Amino acid sequence: MPFVKKKFIAKEKQRAFLFLVRELGYTQKEAQRFIAKGRLLFNGEAITKAGTDIEGEFEFIYFEPISKGLEPTYVQERFVVFDKPSGLLIHPQNRNTSYSLIDELKYQFGRDANIAHRIDQETSGLVLCARDKESERDIKMMFEERDMKKTYLALVHGKFENTITVEEPLLRAEDESAIVRMVVKVDERGKNSKTEFAPLKYFKEFDMTLVECKPYTGRQHQIRVHLFHVKHPIVGDPIYGQSESNVVRFLDKELTKEERIKNSGSSRLLLHANELEFTLYNHLYNIKSNVNFEDICLKNIGL
Q1: Is 120 designated active site?
Q2: Domain 151-273 CATH class label
Q3: CATH homologous superfamily, domain 3-63
Q4: Of 40, 132, 145, 240, which is least surrounded by CB within 10 A?
Q5: What is the pLDDT of residues 103-149, one digit of tens each?
Q6: How far is Cα 295 from Cα 303, in angstroms, rounded to an integer?
Q7: 66-145 and 151-273 share one fold
């Protein structure tokens, strides 16, 4: 388990956050955040104020990464890139999450290493990770300033015939039904969003097309929603292009694998982050996935 509870002893009275800083090597900001989350327990009760004095025995819940042998695709002095498999979380959802990509990163490259951006749990492909706090700030700034060019591959339903650019605003609803809050939709009240799509290969026997996707903005579920909007939902998408009842059953983890394959064409979302291009510290990088996504698609749709 990545989150473990361990006993410590403060030999003299001191502020709770100072013990974490002095004895465990956390920054003041990290120590204060962990305490606010209730990770420091005294006599079984969570201390949530960083300035509280502690003395004697207490317990601290902290993240202890584990490894399952996932090797990075690319290693550089200031950053690394992992080829994340579909189904693997980027970060733990809660303290009971047994393994996520952050485990592998911190196990291999240390506590200061951190993931610089996110892709969906079911999306596979390249994830850029910083190896220290300074490079983390620089990489996140690069994303904010849209200096990162990302290319995805997707297998979609139907014959996708022409290169097109979709510029439909996307909205994540906050005040409607529970199901709507879980998804994103095209809505004039939403944020400006832009994605370019180009067909690569049509599989006539399945009536499916391998498509290259280039998002120019970074909205949640952007590629999935834009493809659904142009009536080419991604094969294996359990949300966009599905009935509301099946979406609810998927979110409640009640939809069987067989039902999902029947409804969407695959047991996993066939979307892959295939290429990253960016300039960092005056050097141009172009990093491509080592995964043969076409082979993965064919295996997942029954060939």
Answers
A1: yes
A2: alpha beta
A3: RNA-binding S4 domain (3.10.290.10)
A4: 145
A5: 999 999 998 999 999 899 999 999 999 999 999 999 998 888 878 99
A6: 9
A7: yes
